[in-house]
Amino acid sequence: MAKERHNAEDFARPVRRLLTAVLCLALMAVFILWRIDSPRVERLRVQVMDTLVPSLDWAMAPVTGLAHLASDFRSYQRIFDQNQELKRELQQMRAWREAALQLEQENARLLDLNNVRLDPKFTHVTGVVMADSGSPFRQSVLINVGARDGIRDGWATMDGLGLVGRISGVGATTSRVILLTDASSRVPVTIQPSGVRAILAGDNTARPLLDLIEDVDALRPGDRVFSSGAGDVFPAGLLVGEVVQTSDRRLRVGLVADYERLEFLRVIRSRPLEPITDPGALIAPRLPAAALLEEAGDG
Amino acid sequence: MANPAVTARRSADGGTLWLMRGVFAVLTLVLLVVQLLPLGLLPAGWVGPDLVFAFALVWVARRPDFAPVWLLAGLFLLADLLLQRPPGLWAAMALLATEALRARAQDLRDMVFAGEWAIVAVILTGFTAAFLALWSLLVPYDIPRGLFALQMLLTLAAYPPVAGASVALFGVTKAAPGQTDALGRKL
What we know:
The structure holds two protein chains of two kinds. By secondary structure, chain A is α+β, with helices and mostly antiparallel strands. Helix content of chain A is 39%, strand content 23%.
């Protein structure tokens, strides 16, 4: 009986096998194309996300809202404890606020004395988180601002408080933010008050690792970590978090950005420093074009 | 000669076939979108089962005609693109895995569930080993191997509930002996 069946399907089977082989080869070809020309295929990926995800927004928004509602509801159960805790914290905060106000006044006075002008280049675009990477192995989010809003690859993103990640992949209306926790994230940081430089290396855990530390002995848990301008990756001085030491005595960074609940992200517009390319043109008289060419040839 | 009444009752006509294919595609898309929801953004340190893969395996084992190879290829590639994986690698490997299962779909019909599950276990083990090997050869960045193996283990663990859900929600049961398709061919 089984034999009979196989005979009856003899004509379909090779066709199906051929189709499978062709499809597998096509998929592998896409993969190999990605290995050879990754930017082009990644652009395709961004386009797919850009067309698909915003059109699914109507479906995703209520579900996300419901899930947040559920987690909020869970937090109501602990509301009494929280209330007590908040009152205690508020008491402490009042003291801190007083200190902060005094410091602010002092700071303003000192700035005024020194005639310091603060860096005016930090303006930002705010975007809403639409989707995450969907995979436990990559840490990234998709936000709803893109090339249309002037977003460029490589810009820093923050939540209200601290650094969250960097833009990597910009579609017309969406862009992807690689979070600091992603295994491929590497960000140069400075640790205050010691001023030690290090690299913040994501490793798919909640607390990224401090790597390539200049001077390990100078660091204490609790030191504050800021982005450093090194390598023109990010503008300097964005707050990242504070140093923590884990039980295996490695130094990690507890991030101040609230990763549990990223809803709005600020993309920091940063302009690259203008490079100085023409030495000598300041003092020397204008040379005729021919002489310039000759000089270039000599050099 | 089959009993015509039985044949008529059981034959999946063309409409049903395409409907179920559509149901499978929509189901996969819904699973993908659910994964994309920005709920917890902290790295979890644990993984859930790969439900897209689990459903594909169940449907291919139970009703290969509802999840044809071209549909699987398209959906898998879309999953790769949406979930930030290297496009094509997982899709090609998963396609091979489901095709390996499809080739055995005939024998699965007469088997008890434990046998079906065992075959899926063997296929998933091979898939995991081959995928990790290919990944380390071809992809420039690392994947957490332990976590990936755990995910595949959980996918295997999710197979029975996913099979149950497929039967309960979508009526995806194994084709009965003598059941025919729209053209009267045996399934």
